[in-house]
Amino acid sequence: MKNNKKLSYALLATLLVSVTGCKLTQPVEQHTRIKSPEMFARQSDSTGIAAIQWKTFFADQHLVALIDTALQNNLDLKMAVQRIEMARAGILAARGAMLPVVGADVSGGGRKFGDYTMDGVGNYDTNFSENIDEDRRLPAPFMPDYFVGLRSSWEIDIWGKLKNQKKAAYNRLLASEKGRQAIVTGLIAEIARSYYELLALDTELDIIRKNIALQESAVETIKIQKEAGRANELGVRQLTAQLLNTRSLEYEVQQKIIEIENNVNLLTGRFPRAITRSSTLAESVPATVSAGVPAQMLRRRPDIQQAQLELQANYNEQQAAQLAFLPSLNITAFLGFNAFKSNLLFSSGSIAYSALGGLTAPLFNRKALKAGQKRAEAASLEALYAYNKSVLNGFREVSTSLKKLENTKQIGELKRQEVDVLQQAVVTSKDLFLTGYASYLEVITAQRSVLQEELNLTNVRKEQFLALVELYRALGGGWE
């Protein structure tokens, strides 16, 4: 009767703990994410350029070959693959936590009970019993203990704590894969940007060398004019100084080319070497470029998808941290041979087994669990803010690139007209100088102006390509 009463108290206590924890089994309320606009500021149609595969989007085959080499050899990309493998190992660990732990156990030891203890007196008295044979007689005073067998422990996931931890590990694996895709999009964009910068520098180099030839001709002309008494030493020196300045620009551009080529080689996992490329920046930017709809960007941008998966993983971990306050059902068992004499260890009479199950719930030492819950809540909020920031950043990049494309097209058209006018001015100033109707200063001014504006026009064309590449990356294109 007394034992039944104790059992009733134990069952009542377990029931009270379970009822108290019923509130904890409810899903954690997830904070609302940012609501994005349904349309971009400037919209042409519903299909954006991000849907185009990068091998089709970039028409230059030299650029395609560079990107392909980078995707094979880039070290950042290889490190991202290893981070995926680490995340995959996290799934295996979480999955293993849901299964029984079984281990082989071979152990031996011994103990000596005090003579005035219950065990000591009991062991001493047992050896005088007529009901035991020689094999069952207890060693005295030191009693060995040998065990060979299997031991197991298993936490039954009755509340879903381990399941949520497994979900968190799986979402982190998906997030690491999205992180790799983000590196791919960034790598493709960086290679393309560097390639177009190289083409622009090649064009600048051609312009500078063409102007060097023109300025050398001007210097020779003014020297002849000086000998004929139609010019003075000041004009010779100023035109010569302008020629020297233009020659120094040639070396500056050559140095920039070397730096960008070395950077491209680093991205492609190669030692410094010349980059094979097209001769000039002959490719043109498409007349119309579509960004698609924001929903497509949110689904395609790897960094936004990564932030979303990290948010879900933190939510699962927050749920698991809350469920840790509930009672856990643990089962322990062993099966093997157990004896106090080594020669009897593997006999049939030495077979031993045990199974024990019990509910354990934290009652007093809950500070560590509360700290884990607080940490999970803070991490979940941080992940939410990171997701919102990635969405805002995505819209900022797309809007900036769209506007930059539009503005650089307008600037490029005006710069082209300006260059045409200045080139005509150079021809006119030279003719007027030869006939004595213009000074050498006007020739210098005209040549300097056309050189600067030709370089500016090249830079504007380069910025158009960079804006197009940035828009392609901002929309999530390139990782497929």
UniProtKB/TrEMBL annotation:
Q: Which residues form a coiled coil?
A: none
Annotated compartments: Cell membrane
Give the membrane topology.
Answer: Lipid-anchor
Q: PROSITE patterns from the xrefs?
A: PROKAR_LIPOPROTEIN (PS51257)
One Pfam family name is OEP
Q: What's the superkingdom here?
A: Bacteria
What are the protein's UniProt keywords? Lipoprotein, Membrane, Palmitate, Transmembrane, Transmembrane beta strand
Main location, first listed in the record:
membrane
Record Gene3D superfamilies: Outer membrane efflux proteins (OEP)
Q: Which NCBIfam families match?
A: outer_NodT
What family is this?
Belongs to the outer membrane factor (OMF) (TC 1.B.17) family.
Name recorded for this polypeptide: RND transporter
Which species is the source of this protein?
A: Dyadobacter beijingensis
